[in-house]
Amino acid sequence: MLHAIEEKFRSRPAADGALAQEHFSLTESSRDPIYVTRPFLPPLDELQELLAEIWSNQILTNNGPLHTRFEAALAEYLGVEHVALVANGTLALTVTLQTLKMSGEVITTPYSFVATSHALKLLGLEPVFVDVKRDDYSLDPARIEAAITPRTVAIMPVHCYGNPCDIAAIDAIAKRHGLRVIYDAAHAFGVKKDGATVLNGGDFSSLSFHATKAFNTFEGGAIVAPSAEAKLAINRMKNFGFRDEVTVESVGGNGKMSEFNAALGLLQLKYFEGVRKARRRVDAIYREALAGVEGIDCVPVPKGVEPNYSYFPILVQPDFSLSRDALYDRFKAANIHTRRYFYPLITDFPMYSDLPSAQSPNLPVATEIAKRILCLPIYPGLSESDQERVIERITGV
Ligand code: T4K
């Protein structure tokens, strides 16, 4: 299996090599674009076999046979007991919050994709922003208690770039204050700490299987629940609140995953370890090439963590010869599309910026990281020659 994946990826550098020769005299911007990520796609003929099953049984959604198979295989692979599939990572958050039926304040991070706090807002909850840690950009447990008020009902941290939060510290704070914890684990598919999944922390964890994630089903997501009862409540909430054919117990929406996405998920699971290995290779090449570059810091992998290598963030420090945005522009001119995840901060967006907790003196670390961060291209099919093009834009300044 691994061999097949590596063969598939190897075919690209050859083609690129030919292209590089042929286009030798062209300007940089006319060379092939390199994106921050490209999705891994399983072999089409294997998907066709599963599609033939769908065509034959004509069950397209609503808990069909592929959904059931994928859900079971996913639980086993992730090392969790109760997992419910949903249509995307944002619904994983909103369906969980709906199920918990809370009102009040939720402590969360400004340093994430905007879906994290939008999910709170969509459910009428009030985000309260707390700063992140300097080493891994996840919610700083040392600052959480000062933000707790009588109206606080939950904490929603993010395993940023797949680096696990300090789950033990956060869960202990929540227990002391009677709060719920919902981990936004959109980046943390397959991540382990000390050999165990990070998805069993808190009350719930939500996953995203978006096209840009390490594990994708085109669109998709999942909720890791703490018990069979909690999973049942999620399943009802994602299906309009139906308890049985004639009973609707709550105001739910439609959060279900289709059979097509489940078919993809089943196949992607087969290939995920190969994908992780291919990403690890890209990660290792960057770390080696950038180790001695003054003013460029790679984000270290925390001790005991098995990452999924979803992102390759670097910090462009003041002693680098270009500012972060000048480096971003230099990449762009070379048709290399890096991303500034997560700039602007969520707290800079107008629907949050007036909140007292959103003010930058309250968030010094997140404010500084957002100015310096740049995510470099990383994906299984990134050829060594394309990665060299990326590295040269930094080392050749
Ligand atoms: N919580 C967190 C912490 C999250 O990061 C996210 C999503 C969520 C919750 C919500 O999960 P979902 O509801 O999305 O499942 C992307 C993604 O759209 C978003 O899923 C992700 N986080 C966020 C960090 O990044 P953009 O605006 O950067 O995506 P886009 O379309 O610019 O794609 C980036 C590059 O990827 C493109 O330049 C090319 C490549 N690409 C993209 C797509 C969609 C492909 O090669 N193929 C594709 O199909 O937001």
For the record, give the distance between the C-alpha atoms at the N and C termini, rounded to a whole number. Answer: 40 Å
Q: What is the total domain count?
A: 2
* Beta-strand fraction estimate: 15-25%
Output mean pLDDT: 93
> How many helices in DSSP terms?
12
Helix percentage range: 25-40%
Assembly type of the chains comes to single chain
Low-confidence segments, given as residue ranges, are: 1-27
What does this structure look like?
A hairpin with a 2-residue loop joins strand 7 and strand 8. The strands form 5 sheets. The protein has a 7-stranded mixed β-sheet with strand order 2-10-9-6-5-3-4, sandwiched between helices. It has a 3-stranded antiparallel β-sheet with strand order 8-7-14, with no helix packed on it. The N terminus is likely disordered. The chain has 2 domains: 161 residues, Alpha-Beta Complex (Aspartate Aminotransferase, domain 1); 224 residues, Type I PLP-dependent aspartate aminotransferase-like (Major domain) (Aspartate Aminotransferase, domain 2), CATH 3.40.640.10. It has 397 residues and is an alpha/beta fold. Helices cover 40% and strands 15% of the residues. The site of ligand T4K has 24 residues, from helix 4 and helix 5.
